[in-house]
Design brief:
Largest sheet: 9 strands, mixed
Distance between the termini: 50 Å
Number of strands: 15
Number of domains: 2
Radius of gyration: 24 Å
Length: about 425
């Protein structure tokens, strides 16, 4: 592929990564204000257009809800996918007559879109107001509480359609990650902030995606379903909140070597023990198969997985919420220092200048304590344990996805992430 940018200078382009350069921008700081759409300074016509889109969404949503309740055909529906439901619409679906109109529903997917602003007319004037994305958490939780007891639903997939590693752009990727909808209405973060776990007694396959969780919440979730029908738990792009060093989240200073027999020519030697709230500690507690006890070490595994036969982990890692006492710099220095060194290193100078140039034209930053930032780092000892004990794959395999993150100014996609499948013996 060949493109001709300004100055009639021919440029050879590789098309495999999906990029097309149409002009050389010698000084991007001069061109930002000339963009037709500036997210932080929307014009009145642009706001009016957004308002019309919102009206259309509301009309479609109302028509859909009424149609389901009035249609006899919908009584036989077995699968429902609410793929990108705006947070403001959650309360409209939290009504018993809607769900009673779906008596045969077996598979349900609810992905909620966190919203950063509201639009409404007040005295014939259009008002545009920025809001916390996290305000959708409680309505989401209440909606799930509504459907939790429905005995027809066997497959449930819940999560967020915005933020995290699935978002694109230097202001969106790896940020604005919302919590799994189990967060308690706490005034300030604490180790117990997500202990109010919802139980789905009839669900056999539960998937939680694109969210952050506390390790306590994940352990409690598995324990709470032990006496019910949950057979498979899928964690898709789940980030565990790292415990601040002031609360005991430091990496162990003194470790010993534990040797594991491997199928290769050499045994594997792991550093032991692991820090509090680490993935190895959590998987030890919830695994339906191998755990620390089988390695001759102290374990927190109940050895009674109940109906749970499989845990699938897809691109899981760590995060830090935005609260001042729980943010990145409050973590162990060995965790946040590599991140800061890379962020302010020479390889990111272009993206830092680009970020500075674009920031005045972006929506204002609202201090939302419940949003998290993905940490593109995992201690080597923990990665080694995940690989050796549970057969985890570290990082991503898709080359395009790995590259895409670097084009937004981040480390290669999949840095600090792992995937694994843990099956009970005999399954």
């Amino acid at each position: 592929m060949e493109a001709t940018p300004l100055g009639d200078e021919a440029v050879e382009l590789c098309s495999s990564n999906g990029l097309l350069v149409t002009a050389l921008d010698a000084d991007h700081t001069l061109s930002c204000s000339s963009y037709p759409v500036l997210p932080g300074r929307l014009t009145d016509p642009q706001l009016a257009a957004l308002m019309k889109v919102q009206w259309i969404q509301e009309s479609l949503k109302d028509a859909f809800i009424i149609g389901v309740m009035d249609s006899e055909t919908c009584r036989a529906v077995k699968s429902l996918n609410l793929a990108c439901l705006p947070g403001r619409c959650l309360e409209d679906f939290d009504r018993p007559d809607f769900w009673e109109a779906l008596p045969c529903l077996e598979t349900l997917k609810i992905m909620v879109l966190g919203e950063i602003a509201t639009l409404r007319y007040n005295n014939d004037k259009l008002q545009h107001r920025y809001v916390d994305m996290s305000r959708a958490i409680i309505p989401f939780k209440e909606l799930l509480r509504r459907i939790a007891g429905r005995d027809s639903i066997k497959n449930l997939h819940i999560g967020w359609a915005s933020g995290g590693e699935q978002a694109t752009g230097m202001f969106a990727r790896n940020t604005n990650l919302l919590p799994a909808p189990f967060l308690d209405e706490e005034l300030a973060p604490s180790p117990y902030m997500m202990d109010d776990i919802l139980v789905f007694p009839h669900v056999q396959h539960l998937t939680i995606s694109n969210s952050w969780m506390t390790p306590r919440a994940l352990e409690w979730l598995v324990a709470a379903h032990r006496e019910y029908r949950l057979q498979k738990l899928t964690l898709d792009s789940i980030s565990l909140q790292v415990l601040p060093r002031a609360l005991g989240g430091r990496l162990p200073e003194a470790t010993t070597k534990v040797r594991l027999e491997s199928q290769g020519p050499c045994d594997v030697a792991l550093d032991w023990p692991f820090r509090e709230w680490s993935w190895p500690q959590v998987l030890d507690a919830i695994s339906p198969d191998v755990h620390f006890g089988l390695l001759g070490k102290t374990t927190r595994n109940s050895r009674n997985p109940g109906a749970l036969k499989e845990i699938e982990l897809i691109s899981c890692g760590h995060s830090a919420i935005n609260h001042p006492t729980w943010c990145l710099t409050e973590l162990d220095v060995n965790i946040y220092q590599p991140i800061l060194l890379w962020t302010y290193g020479p390889s990111t100078s272009y993206f830092r200048s680009r970020h500075i140039a674009l920031e005045p034209h972006m929506p204002p930053v609202i201090c939302d304590n419940w949003l998290a930032t993905i940490i593109q780092f995992m201690p080597q000892a923990e990665a080694d344990a995940l690989r050796a004990i549970w057969g985890a794959t570290i990082g991503w395999q898709d080359a395009d996805s790995i590259l895409a993150a670097t084009l937004d100014g981040f480390q290669p996609g999949g840095t600090g992430r792992f995937s694994a499948v843990i099956r009970a013996t005999g399954c």
